Amino acid sequence: VQSPICLGFNFFHAADDFLVSQEHSYPPASTVEGFRHGIELNSYLLGAGEFKKTGRPVPIETDVHIGIKPYGMNWAFKEVLNHFGNAIEKAIGEHIDVIIFAGDLFDKPRPPNRAIKTVIDAVSKAIAKGIKVYSVLGDHDLPKVADIPPQMLIPGLKLFGFKSVNYIDCFTVNNIEYCIGGVSHYPLKYGTQLKDKLLSEINYVAKQLNNKSVLILHQNISNYNMLEPGLDLSELPDKPRYIAMGHLHRRIIDRRMNGQVVAYPGSLDIIKKDEIGEWKKNGKGFYLIDLSSDE
Q1: Is 23 in a helix, a strand, or coil?
Q2: For the chain, which has fewer Cβ within 10 Å, the N-terminal or C-terminal residue?
């Protein structure tokens, strides 16, 4: 399962060996009969597996694209909603403290009302359990006009890095302070000035984060995808120890020389047919990571 964050400290996103206790994943099928079969298999496997806790895990979800209707298919629209709800239920069942959405929670900045209600219902369940819910904006749900994003309509959800919205939140679990910080998406294709502003905001947030922190970003990293403008790994700050990425729909876990982990969980579902090969190879879903140790 891939894309919210849970603390307890439990949260879900992608992570490395020293952070991940178990990866909730969809194993590849022997045959995939097109897009629909892949979606249905994901739904069936969402509840599979038992998380073996070494600490309190955190789930991270990204690129859920709530409200999307792949290839105009109504059943796929409903399946994406169902999978999101199932993923949140699974995360809550892991006794988490935080859920993180690393961008593109919604497919559009003005999603269908049913999509908004689905997210409100799921987040409300988490909030009722005392779970904190954080998000940044992705390129899909970033407002294209002078408007507010749909995340601002979700009671209890804390949005990072959009205009005057805060960039960081800290809290204590078992007498240990954890911090979650984030910067929403910048469309870097529109010029170097935007990239300079993005890096300035990232560094501003990173300076406020301690070792037991997570930085949330929704950007391309050119080292992994050279087909669109992005950041270089060398431009990322040395801290925190975990950078939860959204935007690329494939799983990437990269441990840097300083021990920091940069990770994309990938999209929760198969959004396009060309993602089936990646799904067969690496699966779709979210990761649970554990920040409780000092390693």
Answers
A1: strand
A2: C
156-190 pLDDT, tens digit per residue, is 999 998 876 678 999 888 888 889 999 999 998 88
**Which tokens go with 74?**
């109504």
pTM: 0.84
Q: Which two tokens stand for residue 117?
A: 């209600």
Strand segments, DSSP code E, in the chain are 11-12, 20-24, 57-61, 98-102, 132-136, 157-159, 168-173, 176-183, 213-218, 242-246, 252-255, 261-264, 286-290
Tokens of 86: 């199932």
Q: 200-233 burial by CB neighbour count: b if 16+ within 10 A, else e?
A: ebbeebbeebeebbbbbbbbbbbebeeeebbbee
The CA distances from residue 266 to 64, 112, 249, 282, in Å, are: 9, 23, 4, 10
Long-range contacts of residues 203-208, Cβ cutoff 8 Å, at least 24 apart: 203/237, 204/167, 205/161, 205/167, 205/168, 205/181, 206/181, 206/237, 206/238, 206/239, 206/240, 207/237, 208/167, 208/168, 208/179, 208/181
